[in-house]
Each structure stands twice: as structure tokens, then as C-alpha cells.
Amino acid sequence: MISTRLILREVLKHDSKKILLRGLATVQRQRRTGLSAAQEKEIVRENWELRCQLATAYRAFEKFGMSEGICNHLTAKAPSLFKEEGVALLVPYGMYWSQVTPECFVGIDLKTAEVIEGLGREPETTAYSIHLGVYDARPDVQCVMHTHPQYSTTLSVLKDPTIQMISQNAARFRTNVAYDIGGYDGIANQGENTEGKRLGQALGDKDVLVMGNHGLLTVGETIPMAYDRHYYFERAAETQVLAYQTGKPLSYLPDDVAKRTEEGIYAYVTKEVVAKHLNALRNVFMKEDPTFIDPKNSEYMEYVG
Ligand SMILES: [Zn+2]
């Protein structure tokens, strides 16, 4: 594989508009013009770093049992050498999350879902309708994560799926959760993008959406923030579902304590803190699998995306 990439690099150095992929097809694609060498380098650097973060999140959800088969999807907006508006990075269809690597991602057009980076790979199709609709509704977020984790999904099938103020983790989400109750209408339709629009509206200005009869969706201004919210909401839901199962009366936090806890966590959980969280996991995965992130592949991205 590496040797193929080396050959590709050499070929493409001579004609950057001509992309040869897998030796099977020749695709014409226009790189953005007018960028300085320094700007191109920065785009490649940032695109690669975002891929590393997103790959870490995929592996982490698999590690914690929050993935489901080869379904569900996490996406992040990233700058691209091929599209001024950037792309949404997304796992190719059919890849198990424990094997996701930074270079595997497909980069799709944020409006049309056309594959811009990773030509020839097939993205997970229901992601079009869910994620692009949410990005449309929330231009302030960089990352959207959607999974069917066991406990959040259990909450989502209850008549009252609301998170109860019974734990510290729950208090974090006291005023930052939206609920899409009774709106589930079958598998997301990729053609019309209606499900994404609907979910974007249901999310509103919150960062967590409990998707009725379906699962969980979080957004973040960064990838680590969306990940942190997703992980901790599932932990809060786990405590709540297990507490329900005991059948014993619940001990609710007084309103003022829940409010103070939410405010305290909000002040503590900064972009830097959540970045440390995801970075710690990245180190774990690098130790488990030193091939997980190969910096050499960041050069490869410059040519084939
Ligand atoms: Zn789903």
C-alpha cells in the first residue's frame, strides 16, 4: 500500500489535476487555485489533524461499546485543497470502527454530499440526510456525532426520556438537551434530506439531542467537545437507567445544587480540557496499535485527499 502511495505521489507531482485512484480510474478534479504554498500547507496540516481527532473518536466509541455494527456516523467539517467551503469528513461505508485511521475518511461536499476527498470510496449514506441537515441548521458547529448507545437509546424509548437531575454527570446537561419525541419517521431518507432538517430544528440551540425511538446526537464547536458531550451524556443516561431498574425511590439534586453543578462543569470543561480527554485516548490507541496514525500518510492526503 505504501509503495502504491509513493508511486501516486510521484505521478501527481507532475500533474496535480489528474487523480489516479486504486489504479482503476482516472478522475479529473480541480484543486483550488490562488492559494500560496504556505496556505496549502496549513490546509493539509489542519485537515490531517482533524482526521486524527475524528479517527480517535470513532475508535473510542467502539472501545466503549457505543458503536453498532458498521452503522452510525461521526462527521467533522475540515478545510480542503479541493473545495473552498471545505468538506465533511466521514467514515467510508463498511469499515469497522476499531480499524478507522485518519486517511480512511471520505470528504463529502457539505451541500450535495458529492465525494470530494477519497474518490472511489462509498460513504455511509444515511449520514447525508442527518449530518448535512444539522450543519445547515447549526453553522456554528464543526462536528456532529450520531450513535445508538445502549443507555441513551433506552432513555429515548421511554414516554418520558428526560434526563433527571440525580447525578453530577446529569447536572452537566440540565439545560443543554433537546428531545425529539414522537418524531421518528423511519430510516433517514438520503434523497430529500428532510430528516436532517427536522433533526436540526429539533436540536435548536442545544448541543445534545435525544432522538426519540432512535439514539443520540451531539454537536460541538470542536471534535473533542462533541465527543466529550456524547461520552458523558451516555454515562449520565447509564446511571439513570440503572437507577430506574432498582425500582427504589430516586434521590434528586435540589434545583440550586443542580444549577450550580451545571455552571461549575460548564466553566471547567473548556476546549483545552476536552482536547486533553481525546488526546489521552489517542495515546492509548497509539500504544495499542502504533500504525493507527502514520504521519507519512498526511503527505499522501495532499494529493488524493
Ligand atoms: Zn441512527
TrEMBL record:
It comes from the Eukaryota. Residues 52-241 form the Class II aldolase/adducin N-terminal domain. InterPro entries: Aldolase-II_Adducin_sf (IPR051017), Aldolase_II/adducin_N (IPR001303), Aldolase_II/adducin_N_sf (IPR036409). One of its GO terms (molecular function) is actin filament binding. GO terms for cellular component: cytoskeleton; plasma membrane. Belongs to the aldolase class II family. Adducin subfamily. PANTHER family: ADDUCIN (PTHR10672), CLASS II ALDOLASE_ADDUCIN N-TERMINAL DOMAIN-CONTAINING PROTEIN (PTHR10672:SF21). This is Class II aldolase/adducin N-terminal domain-containing protein.
